[in-house]
Amino acid sequence: MQPDGSMDQEAISVPDFLYKFRRWRAKDGEAHDNDQLILKHQAVWFASPADFNDPFDCKIPFRCDLMSRNEQYKMVYDISRRKFPHWDAERLRSETERELQSNPLFSETVEVAGCTWEGYYDLIAERYGVLSFAGNCTDILMWSHYADSHRGYCVKLAGKALNGHMRSRLSTDKEAIRLFRVRYERDLPTIVPSNNGKERLERHLSLLYHKSRAWEYEQEYRFIFAGKTRLSRGVDPDVIKRVIFGCRMPPDHRMEIADVVHAELPNTELWEAVRSNDRFELDFRPWNPEDK
């Protein structure tokens, strides 16, 4: 953990496997493209933070109001110089002073500064795509929340291979797409911008991977796509190792998925979750279509 609330993500260890929970069909019986995308088209969906169910997710304040006045001045001055290269030094100084006086983002009163945060959150929701995975497939709540109350399915993917694929095939530069391990906190973190360009970027990205400790059971990892959101990208079919049916998935849905997997992913295993007979847990076993 860094003093500013960010985390050294370069040190994270990519897990051997990552898990994606999906429903197969909606309650009205309709098939939605994003739900079946990974199996039918071997592609994944980068969602907008605006679509998340957690009202705090990707909405961590970037506390410009906690910077010193000199730090604020330098930040605004440098941004203006890059944005308006034709301005002379006097124009840059006067416009910087005006911005610091008029922009509530720099107010010493947190309530005033907070009025600007919603606009900042909207900007994040427009510019970043988030692809989330779980760190395990055994948690009952994950099946309940993200796999249609156990009527959906879970995909097991090779974590290191997926990370390598994302970084090599989807990146236009080193910052375009990266993997982060979500950090869970009891309190809202305090993240202050920096005037060092690389450090400011790292602190800015840290807004996208802090969540409440209430979500810790998810063991979430997320790929962040910088610059775009609500977009799909293909993945190497070989990273899709296993499809696991939820313990309440209807038989006809299982057969539909089996047909898709046999046609599109012949090397992918089919398993099923079953209720344990003596524990509040799920057991997992290879799926046999002959079993009733």
Mean pLDDT: 90
* Estimated structural class: alpha+beta
State Rg: 23 Å
H-E string: EHEHHHHEHEHEEHEEEEHEE
Largest sheet composition: 5 strands, mixed
* Helical content band: 25-40%
Shape type: elongated
| Distance N to C terminus | 50 Å
Can you count the helices?
Answer: 9
Beta-strand percent range: 15-25%
Query: Which consecutive residue ranges, at least 5 long each, have pLDDT under 50?
Result: 1-11
Tally of structural domains: 2
The strand line-up of the biggest sheet is: 1-4-10-11-12
Number of strands: 12
Task: Give a description of the structure.
- This protein is an alpha+beta fold.
- The chain has two domains: 9-48 and 129-286, no CATH class; 64-121.
- Helices cover 33% and strands 21% of the residues.
- It is built from nine helices and twelve strands.
- The strands form four sheets. The protein has a five-stranded mixed β-sheet with strand order 1-4-10-11-12, sandwiched between helices.
- A hairpin with a 6-residue loop joins strand 11 (269-275) and strand 12.
- Helix 2 (69-83) crosses helix 3 (89-102).
- The longest helix is centred in the N-terminal third of the chain and has 15 residues, at 69-83.
- Residues 1-11 have low confidence and may be disordered.
List keywords for this structure.
2 domains, three-stranded antiparallel sheet, elongated, disordered N terminus
Please give the structural blueprint:
Elements: E1 17-22, H1 33-40, E2 43-46, H2 69-83, H3 89-102, H4 110-114, H5 117-127, E3 128-133, H6 140-146, E4 153-158, H7 159-170, E5 177-181, E6 183-185, H8 197-206, E7 210-212, E8 221-226, E9 231-234, E10 240-245, H9 251-264, E11 269-275, E12 282-286
Parallel strand pairs: 6-7, 10-11
Antiparallel strand pairs: 1-4, 2-9, 3-8, 4-10, 5-8, 11-12
